[in-house]
Amino acid sequence: MEILGILEQNEELAEELQERVDLVVHKLKFFPDKLKMIILENLNPVKSAVNETLKDMMTKAGGSYYDVQIWDEVLDLDPDVIILSFPEESLESSLGKASGIFQKEDFSNLKAVKENKVFIFDNRFLHTSVAQEKVDVLEALAEIITPKYFSFGLDGQVWIKLGI
Q: Which InterPro entries match (predicted)?
């Protein structure tokens, strides 16, 4: 069975993972507003995390993914949600790097900042090839995008809200 682009050999586990994916997709099937989202892997220069599986997961989780390569594109987009996810960094070690975003021009004027929707995401999950971890990413994105609908307990493990 294929789950989020990964072939899972264990049928019982594959069915469980597919049920988790289906739960998120079903709950958000008629969710009218797709939030504009960016995931930044680098701040200087600005670099988005981009891959087709990630785009697909964001769509399933209730968001619309945008690729930005310069800070002016971030300002023009004015995203609803900003996720920072630095390669080879844990959640804790990302906090130091994340502080660099506060220095960016007009950062405080962005919608995501005004609505306190800036997050740090554990980067190793974004690029995993393990089906179970990909489903964790989907659930974590669903928690971030639509916290009124989902609570999988991944806050503090896979992602944290950046206090602004």
A: ABC_Transporter_SBP
